[in-house]
Amino acid sequence: MHAILDIFDIYFLEAVINGILLGGVLALLALGLNLIFGVIDVTWICYAELVMIGMYGMYYLVQVFGVPYWAAAPLVILLVALLGAALHFLVIAPLLTAPPINQLLATGGVLFILQSFATVAFGIDFKNLGIRLPVLSLGDMNFSYARLLSFAAALIGMVGVYLFLTRTFTGTAIRAIAQDRQIMPLMGVDAKRIYLITSAIGGGLAGLAACLLVLQYDVHPFVGLSFGPITFLICVLGGLGNFIGGFIAAFVFAEIISLGGLFSDLEWGYVLAFAFFIVMMFIRPAGLLARRS
Amino acid sequence: MNNRLVGWIVALIVLIAVPFVHSDPYHLHLLVLILIWSFAYTSWSIMGRFGLVSLGHGGFMGIGAYVTALLWNHLDISPWIGIPLSMATAGVLALVVAYPCFRFRITGHYFVLVTLALSGIVLQVITATRDYTGGSLGYTPRRAGGIAALQFDDKTTWYLIALAVWLAGLVIWRAIDRGMISRAMEAISEDEDAAAAAGVNVTAEKLKITLISALMTALAGALYCQYQMFISPDTVSGIAVSLQMVFAAIVGGVYVALGPTVGAAITILLAEVLRISFGTGAVGWDNLVYGVLLVLFIIFLPKGILGSVIDRITSPPKKPQRS
Fold first, then answer.
1. pLDDT > 80? residue B315
2. How far A145 CA lies from chain B's nearest CA (Å)?
3. Rounded CA separation B108/B85 (Å)
């Protein structure tokens, strides 16, 4: 009896820690989405599909062209950042004055485009990088290096964005425009340029997430659907545009999924997370950290 | 007005006569699919036209299809009872999610994302309960045939059933359009506070329209299941189906009664043309074209094809309006 309890505890602890590690990457995605929402007031429904394209980019660079991983990653981040800027320039910019719902639905169209583009161009087979990172054993618990690395890189990426936003002129302009869209252009900030830069940063964060996720998951055209919805829920739960709320919510969700997966199937973890989200919307409709009016 | 009535009756007779004049099974199959999906898109537009953009309708459709099929296979409950039960299930779920949403003023982006979570839940539950639902491999209602099982082999019967349901959808649309509820909903979509101040019960009106829309969508799902005799989580539930509804409704036109029907005809015919001309090489191309069209339509023709055409006819051409 005692032994069973011990094993259970270790699995439990392992799941908790794996949840934290998963939370890092989710927090990175949530940060990108929150940044774009906070500054441009747009939700990119296709955000996870940008990650998918980035994962394919990594696959082709590393597996097909033989570029080493550390050299391919910056290229992919740049590629997805350009993709983000292009998405803003081609789809969002013409719709800036349209009702917000139209922008959201237009990015829904982009979701279709990217998914089917991947289907047509890359086929529907599952592909992976073929890099097997060792597993770290700590006592009886096992953690993959891929997850530890992702967690660390995600944290570094987030700190980088934070420093950029607080320490540079452009970063300050971005934060200012998030606070007041009407006044900032009068203060001499070129809103169009700031929007483009923000979109590129949002894209770059998706690219970074792609480099990290491709270490752990196979890539296929519909891979975005497996973590896209959860990213939106994290952002909404944290309060759209609220960076710290999104950060906390990412870990809450990651724990629910990880622990739900421990006690039952992974799908039930997701079901639990979705249900938790709907309940939370009623308790704190404006996000975890919002004060109730 | 009388001319109009005559026109409608003639159109109706022509529609009913189609399968008896031209009984090519493939063409009838396409028509049945168009009618069933038109009904689903119409039910989405009943909400969507008032700015209540839901991505949860994939969930309602999935419930309609799966509850009906599960009751039939596991409990021997005829679809005649199963379909109303599945509709009731979808209705209850719609109320449970929508009431707090409307009560706490969850609108815009937030409403879209909450409903997105709803269709995500339904998809995951169907996949997770794979012992009963077959999971992502799909599910087939037990074959029995006959009226009690609501399974027919000939396309003509199905065509007439789908036609009747589709017409019912249009009648409901018209009733809403003519009723007080559309005035109330228009006021709400302009400005909730002002509408409430003018004596509109915002929560109740929104709930009514959501309930109608969810019930109709579940019916569409159940019909699709009975007609196709095969459902899988990806074809009747989830976010992709929700987006597909949004897409077709927007392409056809959300603000006119026949808009979603035009959207359904365009999307289904487009998919078929691509499938026939490119064969299996077409996998993915139809969605690629959909996606590009959806973006272009939202940017350049937000009222949809039919809506824009009607605008052109009824008023002189002017700068296209963003709505």
1. no
2. 29
3. 31
